[in-house]
Recover the amino acids of this structure.
């Protein structure tokens, strides 16, 4: 079945440290992939998206993600985390023929 | 409107009552999704509409839940005989449809917070 998996339920990093959130996908063809962020009490906001072409995509708030076909992954990264990055992060994927699906989310806690 | 809107923003109801939640997608968006998000949980897919195709109802948790969409516009999610476990934020999202990645990028509404007493 087509799916997106986020292996880490909860990640804690220190402020200023680097961050990587994992996302793995299972699709027959190259999917379209997205990362969304949901800050406490807020709606979902699109961070970045991959459709085709350059496998390293830049998003808002200093985030980037790299599409790796060989690993079926689309991990989200940030070089230096800020306290305001504490939030829930969702990876999502889809293909033109079907609906998008979301991973279960990763909760990011930032330690001062 | 500029974005996806949902109403009401908050709804408090008594157990056993029926509720209707409304979603107005972005104009021209052919795809519409409903999700449920319980406190501290992820997104639970409920139903998906794409154009004039039959909706994908595979996520509806019981026959108390139903949804309709009029053409490519407003959608209503109805919960009959509400139960306390229905308390959650109900999110609506729309996407553009057509070819390319635009088809899948979802734009979310602010949600309706439902509390069943």
């Amino acid at each position: 079945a087509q799916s997106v998996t986020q292996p880490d339920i909860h990640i804690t990093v220190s402020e200023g440290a680097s961050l990587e959130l994992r996302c793995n996908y299972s699709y027959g063809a190259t999917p379209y992939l997205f990362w969304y962020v949901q800050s406490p009490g807020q709606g979902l906001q699109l961070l970045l998206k991959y459709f085709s072409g350059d496998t390293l995509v830049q998003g808002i708030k200093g985030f980037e993600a790299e599409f790796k076909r060989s690993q079926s992954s689309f991990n989200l990264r940030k070089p230096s985390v800020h306290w305001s990055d504490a939030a829930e992060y969702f990876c999502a994927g889809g293909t033109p023929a079907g609906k998008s699906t979301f991973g279960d989310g990763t909760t990011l806690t930032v330690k001062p | 409107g500029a974005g996806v809107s949902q109403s009401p923003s908050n709804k408090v109801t008594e157990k056993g009552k029926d509720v209707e939640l409304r979603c107005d997608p972005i104009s021209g968006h052919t795809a519409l999704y409903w999700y449920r998000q319980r406190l501290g949980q992820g997104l639970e897919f409920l139903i998906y509409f794409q154009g004039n195709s039959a909706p994908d109802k595979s996520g509806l948790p019981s026959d108390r839940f139903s949804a309709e969409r009029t053409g490519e516009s407003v959608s209503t999610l109805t919960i009959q005989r509400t139960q306390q476990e229905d308390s959650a934020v109900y999110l609506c999202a729309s996407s553009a449809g057509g070819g390319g990645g635009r088809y899948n990028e979802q734009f979310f509404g602010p949600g309706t917070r439902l509390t069943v007493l």
Observations:
- The beta strands of chain B are 5-7, 10-13, 19-24, 31-37, 44-50, 65-69, 75-79, 88-95, 107-108, 112-116.
- The interface with chain A takes residues 31, 33, 35, 42-43, 45, 48, 50, 56, 91, 93, 95, 99-101, 103-111 of chain B (CB under 8 Å).
- The mean pLDDT of chain B is 91.
- The longest strand of chain B covers residues 88-95.
